[in-house]
Design brief:
This is Membrane progestin receptor alpha. GO terms for molecular function: metal ion binding; nuclear steroid receptor activity; steroid binding. It comes from Aldrovandia affinis. The protein is mainly α and about 375 residues long. Helix content is about 70%, strand content about 0%. The protein has 15 helices and no strands. The longest helix is centred in the last third of the chain and has 35 residues. It is globular and about 75 Å long. The N terminus is likely disordered.
């Protein structure tokens, strides 16, 4: 009996269960989760506020910039502003200068003309900066023609963009800025002639034209400026065909002379079967210029679709695009010639670069004085009409 009780007691001691302490369960989330949720809600609130602010940007711009007058039709502007077959999209005259500067961002019939040459001028400026890293324009005398053509390209593109942007303020402003545009064209014509004759000419062609090429190029560039200024000033007193002849004929003669070294080089390369990469760019510049000249002399498609090309697609815009591409192709061709043909042009030209640069300055002065003289005549004529 006692033995049995002892065995049961021992078994009971062996199977005794001790209590386990279990942590209290809390129903609230940890503090880190609460902090994360708070941050997320704050970011969502900020995004909502930013979205509200973005919606107010158009209203802010409307209050920051003055309200620009709407464009008008051709019948509402003086005749000197009107272009054939362009019936609308003209800016009203006699506004503040600030208005015409802000029309850079307005839709009108000169917007594309401004931006095409403005962007091209920026592209030429970027090319200038790139070349300045490898070309010593200050110490290398043979880099002078390359510098002249870059400066002249910047001049004509900038003057053209400025003329198309500000020409609508008044009749005198219209004449003034387009006369400045013609000065830029004359500079570019002579700059192209100098660079072509210096870098692209073959020895055979150089022997034929070396005594008279640059002086004749300077004379034709000045005649081009004078013809364009006089044709513009004559206005209705001349038939439109005569007006175009005064503008196109001197420029056409100047181009034929200026590009003759390039054409001779292309022909010689074709006969010899060369694979000069510069010649390919020269071909492109010739083709692009001829296509652009076609659209300048015979503007279309606005002739076939009057009123439908007022803002986009008329011939002068196409001319601007083609001429800008021509200039970029020309600069690339001359860059390649400057690097690859140094032994030839060093032997052919000697100190011609300094003389050519001096003639460039002389051409610029003569063209600017001519434009100023014609402007004064136009100013006197406009004053007499007002009186």
């Amino acid at each position: 009996m006692n033995t049995t009780v002892k065995q049961v007691g021992a078994a009971t001691r062996r199977t005794r269960v001790f209590p386990v302490q279990i942590p209290e369960c809390t129903c609230s989330p940890p503090r880190a989760a609460l902090a994360m949720a708070t941050v997320v809600m704050e970011q969502i609130g900020r995004l909502f506020i930013n979205a509200q602010q973005l919606r107010q940007i158009p209203r802010f711009l409307e209050t920051a910039f003055p309200t620009l007058p709407c464009t008008v039709k051709a019948a509402d502007v003086p005749w000197v502003f009107r272009e054939p077959h362009i019936l609308a999209g003209y800016r009203p005259p006699d506004q503040a200068w600030r208005y015409y500067l802000l029309t850079l961002f307005q839709r009108h019939n000169e917007t594309v003309n401004v931006w095409t040459h403005l962007l091209a001028a920026l592209a030429v400026l970027a090319k200038f900066r790139q070349l300045a890293e490898t070309v010593d324009f200050l110490r290398d005398p043979h880099a002078c023609p390359l510098l002249v053509v870059l400066l002249s390209a910047l001049a004509y593109l900038s003057f053209s963009a400025l003329a198309h942007l500000l020409c609508a303020r008044s009749e005198l402003s219209h004449y003034t800025f387009f006369f400045l545009d013609y000065v830029g064209v004359a500079l570019y014509q002579y700059g192209s002639a100098l660079a072509h004759f210096y870098y692209a000419v073959e020895e055979e062609w150089h022997a034929r034209v070396r005594g008279w090429f640059l002086p004749t190029a300077a004379l034709l560039a000045w005649l081009s400026c004078a013809g364009c200024c006089c044709g513009k000033a004559a206005g209705r007193r001349l038939p439109r065909a005569a007006h175009k002849l005064l503008q196109v004929a001197p420029s056409g003669l100047a181009y034929c002379l200026d590009v003759s070294p390039v054409l001779h080089r292309i022909h010689a390369c074709r006969l010899s079967g060369c694979s000069d990469p510069a010649v390919r760019y020269h071909r492109w510049q010739v083709l692009l210029f001829l296509a652009g000249a076609h659209f300048f002399a015979w503007p279309h498609p606005e002739r076939w679709l009057p009123g439908r090309c007022d803002f986009l697609g008329h011939g002068h815009q196409v001319f601007h695009v083609l001429l800008a591409l021509c200039t970029l192709a020309q600069i690339e061709a001359l860059r390649l010639d400057y690097g690859a043909r140094r032994p030839l042009y060093q032997r052919l030209h000697g100190d011609l670069a300094h003389d050519g640069a001096a003639l460039f300055v002389f051409t610029a002065c003569c063209s600017a004085l001519t434009a100023f003289y014609v402007r004064q005549r136009v100013r006197t004529l406009l004053r007499s009409k007002e009186e």
